[in-house]
What we know:
There is one protein chain. This protein is an alpha/beta fold. The protein has helices at 34-49, 88-105, 121-127, 155-163, 165-174, 180-185, 198-210, 214-227, 232-247, 250-261; strands at 10-15, 18-23, 55-60, 64-66, 110-114, 117-119, 131-135, 139-141, 177-179, 191-193. It contains ten helices and ten strands. The strands form two sheets. The chain has a six-stranded mixed β-sheet with strand order 1-2-3-5-7-10, with helices on both faces. Strands 4-6-8-9 form a four-stranded mixed β-sheet. The chain starts with 9 loop residues before the first strand and ends in a 9-residue tail after the last helix.
Amino acid sequence: MGDIAKDTPLQAVLDSGVLTLTLNRPERLNAMSQELIGLMIEQFDRSLAESEVRTVLITGTGRGFCAGADLAGTGMGNTSGGNGKPDLGLVIERLYNPLIRAIRELPKPVIAAVNGVAAGGGANLALACDIVLAARSARFDQAFVRIALMPDLGGTWFLPHAVGDARARALGMLGTSVPAEDAERMGMIWQAVNDQELMTEATALARRLAAGPTLSYAAIKRAINAAATNTLDQQLDLERDSQRALGQSADFKEGVAAFLAKRPAQFTGR
């Protein structure tokens, strides 16, 4: 599967081990349509299958990162349940949940470069990524309550883990818009950067990770995902088993040799 053409809802470019996925519906603030979600899932399948892809970077075109669900483009307004009313759960199960699972389960780093508003599902799409950078002018908006819904795309899981129970409840119930610098201060994202430096910083970070020990990144993702439900004893056992496997990798041998020789390591993901 190759890169996606520039006139589609998703641009995909692989360079130096970094697969950059650019949401490309600027006229809709990159709201997620069924087509866009399908293309994203295809690219995450590609990222899992192709060793050339070592890091994924997600961003958006125009003045928004992602305005959330395209209510018309995903059928959320007219998907009929057995009682003739919309079945939003069916749409979530078929479209959004597979995308979030693909991001979280990918054994490679996923970075979000939030270039503008990230609202509703768009905010939680960003929070699903491993590392989030945001332009200082960006904001994160849990807008669901404004149309009598609740956060989805993992928002009720990501928020309390990132910002704590009290803030998560308030953000969900009030639908408050959080500027990027406040999101950084409360631990919702990794870093807010100057607007004009966002893609330079995000690309440099992505390339740094692409050149790094991808087996380590995969183990870190698995361990942190498991920590949410593991006891301390279970987590210690997981760390033991994961470290044992990493210690037998070619990358560990190379890392030690490079450290002793005081030279940059050349990691291969083996």
